[in-house]
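Homework help board

Subject: predicted structure for assignment chain

Our instructor gave us this sequence and asked us to write out the predicted structure in token form, then describe one feature. I got the tokens but I'm not sure how to describe them. Can anyone check?
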Amino acid sequence: MVYRKKLLIVFILLCATVSLAQKISIVGQVTDSTGAPLYSATVMLLSTTDSSLVNFSASNAQGFFEMKNIAPANYLLKITFLGYKTHSENIEPPTYTVVDIGVVILTLAKTTLDEVVISEKIPVVVKQDTIEFNAGSFKTNSNANVEELLKKLPGVEVDHEGNVTAQGEQVKRVTVDGKDFFGGRDPKMATRNLPADAIDKVQVLDRKSDQAVFTGVDDGQREKSINLELKEEKRNGVFGSMTGDTVPTPVIWG
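My token output:
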């Protein structure tokens, strides 16, 4: 009898472990009202508890998208595309591993109030070769640096030494408003010395090589980079005027 009880307990624990470990995928297709696929529509999965961004994706040339390795929970799914009304729907914990939401038809915005405005309300926008995070959508402590902000972004990881990876690739360069920070190529110079509250946008992109930028001839070489867009009020107050191709020494924060 005791043996059977032990087996039952082990079985229940195993079932609970499998249930917790199981991940789901969310798939679908985005089109316009004519049935034409919408390429590079931004698909966001938000937590229903605090509206934080859990995951995101973008539709391909055929309008299809997929988000993998999602923990089963209640979510709010939002799909945005410039010039179209935002689509929103609730996703409930499924009993199966793939949630197919089918075809989502976006309708054209008829007024300026309907248009998608890139603001604090939208945490991420996918612009074909660039992923742009709205920094204000990711809460950090008042004294946090950019490194702490990056840890909040889905798909971005920072290890204990400060090395940054984005979408599985090591970030080789971090620029500020498109310019090298202190003229160097060490991303940690920017991520550990800039305060998070000075950042407006975080852009993750595949940057052309210096040679390609200089000559204007694309050599096919790319490196994973992050560009930090400063808030307008921080550009002069923090850094003074920018000169040349680098960001000069900042003044004291205050």
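Reply (TA_rk): Your tokens look well-formed. For the description, you could write something like this. The chain has a mean pLDDT of 81. That's the kind of observation they're looking for.
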